[in-house]
Amino acid sequence: MHDEYLTEEQLKTLKGMLEEQLESLLSQSREELNELVETREVDADPLDLAVSESNRDFTLRLADRERRLVAKIRYSLERIQSNEYGACEACGEPITYGRLMARPVATQCIDCKTEAEQVERRKRVF
Ligand SMILES: [Zn+2]
Hints:
Elements: H1 8-42, H2 46-81, H3 97-102, H4 110-125
The structure holds zinc ion.
């Protein structure tokens, strides 16, 4: 059995998941940003300040990861718009529904992804 392209219904489900994830990520970073502002205003003690500085680094690192994920989700939504979503970027074959349900931002089929990871691993060895 070869892999099928997504049905209208499956596409709608995945689009909903992506939009939901995007919304929760965006509201989460808004909350973190608010906390950041509040901590800065309250802290006066130098020791507390040091703690809040390291918290701030952590928040910024986290925010960086979230920003990348947000970009990936937006990219996936764009691909849905342009009817490219669900096809592997590398070989053009369909990405299975099961794989997309587990990872809606996937842009490559499992074969290409595995190959890319192996190349990546080889690069790290040498
Ligand atoms: Zn592929």
